[in-house]
Amino acid sequence: MNFPSSTYRVQLNSSFTFQHLLKILPYLHRLGISTIYASPVGTSVPGSTHGYDVTDPCQINPEIGTLEELKELSQQLKALGMSWLQDIVPNHMAFSSANKRLMDVLERGERSPYYNYFDINWGLYGKEHGGKVMLPVLGEDAAECFNKGEIKLAWQEEGVMIVYYEEQYPVAPGIYEYLLPVSQAVWRERVDRLYDDWAAPLEGWTAQKHVLIEAVREDAEVLAYVTQRLNEINSHPRELMKWVNCQCYELACWQKADTHMNYRRFFAVNALISLRMENPAVFEDYHQLLQELCKDQMIQGVRIDHIDGLCHPREYIERLRKLLGEDCYMIAEKILEYQEQLPGDWKLEGTSGYEFLSFVNQVLTSQDGALRLKDFYQRWVPGMPPYEDLVFEKKYEFLKAYLAGEWDMLTNYLESLQVLQGVSYSRERLRKALGVWMAALPVYRIYADSFPLPEAERQLVRRAFAIAAVKAPDCSEELEALETLFEGNGNPQRAANKIKFIMRLMQFTGPLAAKGVEDTVFYLYNPLISHNEVGDSPVRLGISIDAFHKKMADRLLNSRYSLNTTSTHDTKRGEDARLRINVLAEMAEEWTVLVQQWNRVNSTFCEEAGLMIKPSFNDEYFIYQSLIGSYPATGRHDETFYERSKAFIVKALREAKEYTTYTRINSSYEDACVRFINGIIDYPPFMESFVPFVQKVVAVASVYTLGQVVIKCTAPGIPDIYQGCELWDTSYVDPDNRRAVDYVHREQLMQLLEAKEGEGARAELLEWLMQERSTGVEKLFVTKEVLHFRKAHQELFLEGDYSPLTIVNAGKHVLAFARHWKGKWVLVVVPVDITQWTEARAGHALWDKLAIELPGGAPDVWRELFTGVTVHRENGLLPLAPYLDRFPVAVLEA
Question: MF terms per GO, please (predicted)?
Fold first, then answer.
């Protein structure tokens, strides 16, 4: 298998196409990248900026390019010795009229070959929906929309459609017999031919329907007749309702989705419908293009999006491995809790790296300072519950408010399987107990597909039941009944049905965790928001260097081929914004004094409504931290920064769901918070202390930025660079972190850097890098140097031992480790907790008398990568000062 030495994530869309990517390949090659890591390339909803709303997985998205252009890219990559890692989306597709498979289901119902393609529970609500799929697309109840004339039947290029503003949905074929003059033999024959192909494959059906539509279009008299018939239907609401209501779908108000949904959605998003990927026919159809690209050596690896949404992840991985071959590098997007491991029987190389983000973010946070900030926060926002209680509360609230239909679906399915026979329970309490247990599960999901469950999963199940018992004492009998689901004793058929239910249940616990925690609690619980991050958690704020070393040793053992990521298209803030906010823990005393000062100074921009202050103390604290993370390092902002900040805070407030939501917008509160930001960032009494403090934070965070790059590229795992993050990344959450990247600027910086390097004077180069720090060129330099070094020593970094190193006289202020493989050695040295260390060393040279205790068998002579300094062992120790006095971080080789 050809493992990447590094990956570079690109977001492909109409603004950044295959042609744009082709132009920057030489730049990425000079940067040291080995592998392009591409967002989904299948056809998606027109105008999609991300590609996860797939409409046709078997065709290249024409907005990003053609198959021929992808072939050209592939050839150029091979010429440069580079490869391609492709993101795929097997869990869901877009609920869109552009999704021909889905539209075919809506048109032909059970006769469609795609009837079982999508995860639709046709019989969930029995007679109420009559075996239909609910389409929550209307602005009001259907009756109101009919009365207002907002719903019409219309003759379109694709045939007869139900039209609601810009949306349109197909009508079952029976309407053609009503609309066309079938008393005439020629039209009777044409309609009969259409009926003959009612259950044909999609291409055949579409072709036959096209013949009929063209015949109507070419016959002006018949077209007028059809138009008249449609006008008659549209002019009589009852007649129109009759035709609309006899479809295999039901048009409903969008708000009904929260309580009566009967198709599985991706993360409660109505516009994304999940697939039955466990169905072999679905798997085979969906992966046709991927198989061809892999067979033709145009891609060398895949990243599986949202693997936790699949019914049977292990089985899916095995099928995909068989389809793509043993040499295909395969990883999955998987959010692992701090103590959680990827299942050992998955035939994957690893994960997309969110757990690494957490480990490095935690070790670059001062534990002592973070505890002081947590104490301050509890006094600042005294009503905020403990984190674990808040997580349960918000998960359960989200389930009740937005996933009630899915909750009903699960309860009905559980009862239909008859696995609780002989157990006493109330259905309503059973439903509640099930929801409470889901909210109590401390991980995204478990992967039970047979009995007995692995011990680690049994412990998680027991822990969830223990929490649920405390949260819902009125459901004790029902919880006891549910607990029997996780035991395989007794009847084999009943045991098989239990596994069926558990696997189904797990498809909903992941979305509940994501929406309840990442998209709610992470905007609400704010002691130190740099840890409110995908893969990370504010349940702990900082880990020790020893704890980090243990995580890396474990990573080498169990997940050495996973990506090491620090920013993605889904992270809540840019990697350098996170590090800035981390620094607040090192400056806890100064920070908390300033926050209280700013609260007084900026009170003129707060608005009162009765007992309510806008923004709340909690949101005000969130705003200050966010501005620290993203404010321009130059100390000057422009209108663009204000607009970005405005959009971000509105999104953050809606995600928090405390005073406003996407479905119940509180414009008064949102506008007050926007006015607050607008006021303070141009208010001298605030800015005269804010800007100097930001610059003080940036001075420390810039060292951590370089340290994070070095750790990412040298610790166990494969470094992943998110687009543009070779320079500073202080973006907010999406869509801010998906803005177009200025590659012209980056190439110019690269040329300037290479010219400076070519001059040969390393001391002058390092001085220039420090002077130009605000441009990000220092980060570019470190990224380029270490990526090329890693590429030259790929086996060392993939397979080499990982050894923690002790720094004499440094205490907890230097993180250092060694990588060793077949006689080649690398030492990595990164300062941590810099502020306290600088204060402690006041009046002394910062790194004087500090040295590395070299491990047994290590060489005597070392060369440092960034400074070019050669260092010799002295009395068994390797001094730090010769290189750390010249540059903030170090990579030494021997």
Answer: (1,4)-alpha-D-glucan 1-alpha-D-glucosylmutase activity
Whether the Cβ atoms of residue 569 and residue 722 lie closer than 8 Å to each other: yes
Q: How far apart are CA 534 and CA 545, in angstroms?
A: 22
pLDDT, tens digit, for every residue of 688-714?
999 999 999 999 999 999 999 999 999
| Beta strands 159-164; 851-853: pairing state | unpaired
Low-confidence ranges of the chain (pLDDT < 50): 126-127
**Pairing mode, if any, of strands 851-853 and 806-808?**
antiparallel
The pTM of the full predicted model, rounded to 2 decimals, is 0.95
pLDDT of residue 221: 95
Strand 301-304 to strand 329-332: parallel, antiparallel, or no bridges (unpaired)?
parallel
- What homologous superfamily does CATH list for 7-91+277-352? Glycosidases (3.20.20.80)
Q: What's the rounded Cα separation, in Å, for the pair 254 and 212?
A: 34
Could you say which of 3.90.1150.10, 3.40.47.10, 2.30.180.10, 2.60.40.1180 is the CATH number of the domain covering 793-894? 2.60.40.1180
**Residue 86, strand partner residues:** 38, 302
DSSP 790-831: HHHTHHHHHH-EEEE-EEETTTTSEEEEEEEETTEEEEEEEE
The token duo for 481 is: 């009944």
Give the single-character DSSP code of 16.
B
Sign of CA dihedral 453, 457, 460, 464: negative
pLDDT of residue 126: 47
